[in-house]
Amino acid sequence: MPILVQKTQLAAKLEASEGSPETPAAADALLIINPNFTPQIETHEQNLISSDLSRYKSLTGRRSGKINFDVQLKGSGAAGVAPEWGKLLKVCGFYEDIAAGISVTYTPTSAGIPSITLSVYMDGLLLKLWGARGSVAFNFSAGAPATASFVFTGADFSVEDAAILAGVSYDTTEPKIFSNAAFSIDSYQALIEKLELNINNNMQLRSDVNKQSGYLSAAITGRRPAGSLDPELPLVVQYDIFDKWRSGSEGALSLTLGTTAGNIINISAPKCRYSRLSLADRGDIRTLGADFELNRNTGDDELSIVLT
User: pTM value?
Assistant: First the structure.
């Protein structure tokens, strides 16, 4: 029997003990898009010299892995209740602050970041990654649902036969498209089609010779948040974007997805600085390719995601 792509399921569970794999349950499953699993195993050639030219087998070294996928940006359907992808943000270096019945807020944190076990069920096959942490990029395209693209690095992996989880109840809240978003950057309502906000975490594997894989877990050792957008080229009198780039001035970014309580997402960044501008076009209309930094205000506050 073939393994069908459509019959794929992801379960994600925070680890009680860093680097120790968790056993997922139906409640840990969530909806994803475009999953991919990349195992990594080091190989050490022996390069032994003998009386002939034949090679000796290479030795298997440390192993690790990566899992990446997208999720739709949407609320839980109830204000003050974390979305199913909230736990993924936690292991990407975000602090979760829940005001019951009101809001859930995610902001960057530099301490207390948990690790996670990710289990990908592929129609009878289970690929598991543990001791994992990751990075995330938020993607917005006009007229389409916004997504978060996650990349997780893990300390070890396994592959085995296992039935897909039964009794799963997926969140049925519908995502909102990127429109009527009250988008602005530096108080300018730029005419854009695409926007990306990337937390750009630096990932490092922690060596541990007491572990079979040779690693304890993946650690977040830094972040360089950045973004990009494609505004129509404005006149100087409208918005002198080249002078903003030249002077290195900073401005705030904000946008809103949705209008229904329980499914409203407000995203803001207080200190955006242009780092590159280049001429482009969209349907014979002059545009810009604009990259920008997401910088600190007081620290651990360069990006805020508030669900209400």
Answer: 0.96
